[in-house]
Amino acid sequence: MAQCELCGNEYDKTFEIVMAGKSHVFDSFECAITALAPTCSYCGCRIIGHGVEANGVFYCCAHCASKEGIQEVRDRATGGQRPAAQGSQAPTLTDMAVDVSQNEPPPLSKL
Ligand SMILES: [Zn+2]
Ligand SMILES: [Zn+2]
């Protein structure tokens, strides 16, 4: 049985995380987060999601980054980073407008 390097618990379901070439063994994600997750430079919480990195400093979210004067960062960034499948499921306003025009009855002048 392996032993959690943080709390010392001996457990048969420990797991290993390799970070920056160094191996770590934990008995729980909570121990792994406590030992390895970066902390937000502004509010001090643990960064478990993607977080934000600016000027070599980590923040938990764009709000905390903006409070430290980082203005370029947005959590809801727009651009070509979203999967194409999302766009095909929900029609855009432009697509709906095209559909409406195609369903119009023929002009009266043809009758
Ligand atoms: Zn532990
Ligand atoms: Zn924060």
What percent strand? 15-25%
What do the pLDDT scores average to?
80
Low-pLDDT parts are 94-101
Structure ligands: zinc ion
User: What is the tally of helical segments?
Assistant: 4
Short description:
The protein is an alpha+beta fold and 111 residues long. It has helices spanning 29-36, 62-67, 84-89, 93-102, and strands at residues 2-3, 10-11, 15-19, 22-26, 52-54, 57-59. A two-stranded antiparallel ribbon has the order 1-2. Strands 3-4 form a two-stranded antiparallel sheet.
List the helices and strands and how they pair.
Blueprint: E1 2-3, E2 10-11, E3 15-19, E4 22-26, H1 29-36, E5 52-54, E6 57-59, H2 62-67, H3 84-89, H4 93-102
Antiparallel strand pairs: 1-2, 3-4, 5-6
The protein binds zinc ion (2 copies).
One zinc ion binds next to loops.
Verbal overview:
By secondary structure, this protein is α+β, with helices and mostly antiparallel strands. The protein has helices at residues 29-36, 62-67, 84-89, 93-102; strands at residues 2-3, 10-11, 15-19, 22-26, 52-54, 57-59. One zinc ion binds next to loops.
Keywords:
two-stranded antiparallel ribbon, single chain, elongated, alpha+beta, two-stranded antiparallel sheet
